[in-house]
Design goal:
alpha/beta, Glutathione S-transferase Yfyf (Class Pi), Chain A, domain 2, 5-stranded mixed beta sheet, 10 helices, about 50% helix, AIMP2, AIMP2_thioredoxin, AIMP2 thioredoxin-like domain-containing protein
């Protein structure tokens, strides 16, 4: 090594080392029972590095001790020792005890059911419970009798959907639409119909809890919403591949709305109202926008829109 002038005058360095010494490693085979494959790398470390390694090792050990303590506490709280299958001679005795506990639990449930029925009778709630039972019964019978909507695929044989991701420079764009179930958004569904021919897109439908009671009492509305979802599933326009392989994801949520105007919520939280503004906002995400002329032509000739109008 060479003695040179300091780069900064403010820092005064009186002398620089002219040679270096090799010392014994802090960890060796005497104080740590390591194999040769671990001792040799440690011998090349400095004291500072070895000290830092020792600190990290201590942290990991303390962390493992904490995890072990918490796991033991968790097992004690859940009394998991009662769930262990013993292989000793008294295993039959343990099994009989488990059966007794199960019977006691069933008895508690039966007693609770009797108490609830007694409270219902005292509060004159029999009519309410009977009506709810009848609603559930009618709903189950309707679903059993209802046939799944079958799509005539021959009407769509000339329509080619995009099956390869086009916008490779971005992730899937999730678009959430809030719509009134009594007003089917034909313009938005028509836009999706055209968009699915240009970009790889999927569509999903969900029912919000705000209209769940209305659907239970209106079987025609329930049948219509179910048929719409089954129509798009039959055309393989739902999620069939990994989400990352799509360009756009349309999620329609049927919910109670103050007005008939649809709302679009982007992934960043931005909300747009009205079908015209929504279509314009989606168009801005495309490298080549979909013209109004094409949308009108598709709405007039698309078999998908014709089927939706009949539902």
């Amino acid at each position: 090594m060479y003695k040179v002038r300091p780069l900064q005058d403010k820092v005064v360095i009186k002398s620089l080392p002219t040679c270096m010494y090799k010392t014994k490693p802090f960890f060796n085979e005497d104080n740590l029972n390591f194999g040769s494959n671990l001792v040799e790398p440690l011998a090349n470390l400095s004291l500072v590095e070895l000290e830092e390694l020792s600190k990290q090792q201590g942290k990991q050990l303390r962390r493992l001790e904490r995890l072990l303590t918490k796991s033991n506490e968790f097992c004690e709280d859940l009394r998991l020792d009662n769930l262990v299958i013993h292989t000793s001679q008294n295993s039959q005795h343990k099994l009989e005890e488990a059966y007794k506990k199960q019977e006691a639990l069933f008895q508690k449930i039966e007693n609770l059911t009797q108490k609830v029925n007694k409270v219902v009778q005292e509060m004159n709630l029999n009519s309410v419970t009977e009506s709810l039972a009848n609603v559930n019964l009618r709903q189950n019978e309707t679903r059993k009798q209802r046939q799944r909507y079958n799509v005539d695929l021959s009407l769509f044989k000339e329509i080619k959907r995009a099956n390869i991701k086009v916008l490779t420079d971005r992730n899937v764009e999730d678009l959430v639409f809030y719509v009134n179930p009594n007003n089917i958004p034909l313009d938005l569904l028509n836009f999706f119909d055209v968009l699915s021919q240009e970009t790889k897109s999927f569509i999903k439908f969900y029912v919000h809890s705000s209209i769940s009671s209305d659907i239970q009492q209106n079987y025609e509305l329930e049948n219509k919403l179910l048929s719409i979802g089954e129509l798009f599933e039959g055309l393989s326009l739902s999620v069939n591949d990994s989400r990352v392989s799509y360009d756009f994801g349309f999620t329609f949520i049927w919910r109670k709305m103050e007005s008939n105007e649809q709302e679009l919520k982007f992934s960043n939280g931005t909300i747009v109202s009205g079908e015209a503004k929504i279509a314009q906002s989606i168009n801005e995400l495309l490298p080549q926008q979909i013209s109004e002329v094409r949308l009108k032509q598709n709405k007039a000739s698309s078999p998908l829109i014709k089927i939706l109008k009949t539902l």
